[in-house]
Design goal:
By secondary structure, the protein is of the alpha+beta class. It is built from seven helices and four strands. It has a four-stranded antiparallel sheet with strand order 2-3-1-4. The longest helix is centred in the C-terminal third of the chain and has 11 residues. It is globular. The chain starts with a strand and ends in a 9-residue tail after the last helix. The site of inosine-5'-diphosphate (IDP) has 9 residues, from loops.
Length: 141
């Protein structure tokens, strides 16, 4: 199975709840390494660019407002099948529909404030990692 990298964001609601460590523990327990990490306050322009694929959707304005409402913790996760593994750990977009034991089931309040983002495919992972970590140095360990 391929070693992949994926972009993960712990969103403002989960940062405010002080559960960064609990979410990191789930990544580590699943065999994912933190290859890079930054605590970031996104600007409106950055949030609009990052979620540009959704700009025609009715929830776009609220999503951008939410993503700039406080700092986010952004990390590159690395490991076997990292993209799908992270999506499985996250659970469904709507926490009411997320499987028990997933990050969103345990830490998210609503479909807007849903605790985490994770790249959904190899192409988006590459673009999203480069968005936050241009020229990233990956440290072997
Ligand atoms: P994902 O984060 O599970 O990949 P996407 O469909 O890519 O879900 O949507 C991006 C983000 O936009 C979601 O995580 C959520 O915060 C927000 N979002 C998606 N659908 C809705 C909706 O119907 N209402 C409000 N916010 C939504």
């Amino acid at each position: 199975m391929a070693i992949e990298r994926t972009l993960s964001i712990i969103k403002p609601d989960a940062v405010a709840k002080n559960v960064i460590g609990q979410i990191y523990a789930r990544f580590e327990a699943a065999g994912l390494k933190i290859a890079a990490a930054r605590l970031v306050q996104l600007s409106r322009a950055e949030a609009e660019q990052f979620y540009g694929v959704h700009k025609e959707r009715p929830f776009f304005k609220d999503l951008v407002e939410f993503m700039i409402s406080g700092p986010v913790m952004v990390q590159v996760l690395e490991g076997e099948n990292a993209i799908l593994k992270n999506r499985d750990l996250m659970g469904a977009t709507d926490p009411k529909k997320a499987a028990p034991g997933t990050i969103r089931a345990d830490f998210a309040d609503s479909i807007d404030a849903n605790a985490v983002h994770g790249s959904d495919a190899a192409e988006t992972a590459q673009v999203e990692v480069a968005f936050f970590f241009p020229g990233l140095n990956i440290y072997a360990r």
